[in-house]
Amino acid sequence: MLVRNLERKSGRSPPSEGTPRHGSMGSLLLAVIYLIFISLGLPDSLLGAGWPKMQMVFGVPSSYAGYVSMTISCMTVVSALLSPRVIRRFHTKWIVIVSIAMTVLGLLGFSVSGSYWMLFLFAVPYGLGAGSIDSAVNHYVASHYPSSVMNFLHCFYGVGAVVSPAIMSLALRVARWNEGYRWTSYIQMAILLVCLLALPLWKRNEEQTEEDRGDGAGIRETLKVPGVLLTLIAFFAYCAGEATCFLWTPSFFAGTKTGLSDEIIASFGSLIFGGLMLGRLISGFVSDRLGDRRLIRIGIGVELLGILLVFLPVQGYIITAAGFVVIGSGMGPVYPSIQHMAPSNFGKRYSAAVIGLQMASAYLGSTLMPMVFGNIQQAVGIGVMPVYLLIFAAANLGLLEIAYRIIAGGTIDV
Question: pTM here?
């Protein structure tokens, strides 16, 4: 207990208990886990990249992207809130298989949608699948691997999220926006096949994982733990800014820069994801040395620098594009570091429920705040986006610092 309290006060992550041995089988399993997070990232940036064209095809206002995004995120909130119970009942590998299959269904559904209302129908499996993967795999990695693995894991999420705007850009150039979703679903099918073939790799850690699932706390009990509620609100603020960038970055360039083609505007959807990937790649090499809390502070500082670059009143798009990459780089370590700290901050008994609640809070921010921004930008102009991002970055940092102080003064059940 004393060691854990000292680690919490220093902001340095303790070594994960029960870390799987890294033989050839362990390395293959880790490679599969990274591939799973590529599949998680693939669908996330398609809507933002394709929306400027989809909006015209469906004949709806630009703000209507927020309602589709809200529906997807609502489903992820539901699956995240159910995740502690699901994790206790089912092994991670089966949660992954079912969840990827659901995202394939959602992507194929989007690809055949000929009317705006159809997007809402297929947003249900689209969102439920993403939330289940996120909660289950984050809990598994936070419980069994060090901080560096968590950052590399979310770096691979960035790989998927960077690839999909390029897919949508290609589809807009040679076909239609529908093909962007269809081609992405084919990639998801291939990843699903790899995961099915890799099922025996999980057997090695099944006994230990069964033990980890046995005595987890419920959501109601977990909400009473000191520091949990503030961490959830901070996560809400982080994902509000992140999801706003995911959805509205291409539209920001379309509304503030002139002379850009539809294909180039769609490709700007990858800027924030490229930054996320870069930030998490760098963090993976330094996280075990710096600790999660210090990484978060550095990351938010870099994010604020990127927002400043986007603020600059320049004519061209190069500096603004660089600003979004810097914003993404700063955001990079925040999400994985908060998730990885759950077992050390709150104890193994509460970690699954904390991660599930964090996911629900994150997706609630992703659900509501891009839609709120859509209405704000329709009223005052999309140029207000940097101010919106600044508010949430400051709230994220302030709330986390308060939560750290509360956690450092308390005790945890292990």
Answer: 0.72
